[in-house]
Write a structure and sequence with these properties.
By secondary structure, the chain is of the alpha/beta class. The chain has twelve helices and twelve strands. 33% of the residues lie in helices and 15% in strands.
Length: 315
């Protein structure tokens, strides 16, 4: 049985997952992102996908007749056409991601980005290494306004930390109620007020047809020129071109980003040259604990499927 493990950028899949326990298995681990994975996956019965790094639309399944099991880390993957998988007889299984710790991972990274942008951590680190001392002036969080776009589990955690910094916390999403906002320590405001009054605007929505492109040029134009935007949710929620323009023209003061429309972020993308930005390569879920759970359950899923009792089936 041939197994291909995709997108192991850090070269850790074998260390975290007991792949050697799979009898009669040829395991190939790929360490670079493949824009077109078909050639590398031909002949594989089992493919392991890391989150949404590699899309699996219907045309991919058409070209992989040997594929029988696709294991994705996590219990949801918008990049996999589940209907097409089922139509081709491919079982899709998921894994856990360390439960509530996953949301904590992304919450922690959100605040790492907020603090890094507001206090110019990256710029000052580079300046110091270059022989310069104190080149920027930071912005206080205490007394400023944190705007949370999407007050689900992640947004609620971010909001509570904002209160710990003595920030005024406001929030908006389509179905948010005043009572639910109050439970999270936030005040429900209109969408217009959220963008107009936030000093820090952080995005915590699920990607869907409704949220794709939700934050556009008109929204960014109403933000304070001193405000920053942070996105650790999904890149397509924010119009990439509009954000790059707002940053380069000074319509907003900065951004902290962990997610993008296209990942890895292509060379020459305008966001790479945008001023006062901290750009991370989608690290929200990338921690030791999460990787351990995911890769161990990947092997568990393959073992269960081979025995005829697949686990955590998504198709």
């Amino acid at each position: 049985m041939k197994i291909v493990v995709l997108d192991d950028y850090q070269r850790v899949a074998r260390a975290y997952g007991p792949f050697d326990s799979l009898p009669d298995a040829e395991v190939e681990v790929l360490h670079e992102h493949l824009a077109d994975p078909v050639a590398a996956l031909r002949g594989a019965e089992v493919v392991v996908a890391m989150r949404e790094r590699t899309p699996f639309p219907a045309e991919i399944f058409d070209q992989l007749p040997d594929l029988r099991l696709l294991v994705t880390t996590g219990m949801a993957n918008a990049s996999i056409d589940l209907a097409a998988a089922a139509a081709h007889g491919v079982t899709v299984s998921g894994t856990g991601m360390s439960g509530s710790a996953l949301s904590s991972n992304t919450t922690e990274l959100t605040w790492a980005l907020i603090l890094a942008v507001q206090r110019h951590v990256v710029a000052e680190d580079r300046a110091l290494r270059d022989g310069r001392w104190q080149t920027t002036i930071g912005t206080d969080l205490n007394g400023s306004t944190l705007g949370v776009l999407g007050l689900g589990r992640l947004g609620t955690q971010v909001a509570r930390i904002g209160r710990a910094f003595d920030m005024r916390v406001i929030a908006w999403s389509q179905n948010l109620t005043p009572e639910r906002a109050a439970e999270a320590g936030a005040t429900l405001v209109s969408r217009a007020e959220l963008f107009a009054t936030s000093d820090v605007l952080t995005v915590h929505l699920k990607l869907s047809a409704r949220t794709t492109g939700l934050v556009g040029a008109a929204d960014l134009a109403t933000m304070k020129p001193s405000a920053i935007l942070v996105n650790t949710s999904r890149g397509p929620i924010v119009d990439r071109g509009a954000l790059a323009t707002a940053l380069t023209t000074g319509k907003i003061a900065g951004a902290g980003l962990d997610v993008y429309d296209v990942e890895p972020l292509p060379p020459g993308d305008p966001l790479r040259g945008a001023p006062n930005t901290v750009l991370l390569p989608h690290l929200g879920y990338v921690t030791d604990r999460t990787y351990r759970v995911m890769y161990e359950q990947v092997v568990e899923s393959i073992t269960a499927w081979r025995s005829g009792t697949p686990l955590r089936v998504l198709t």
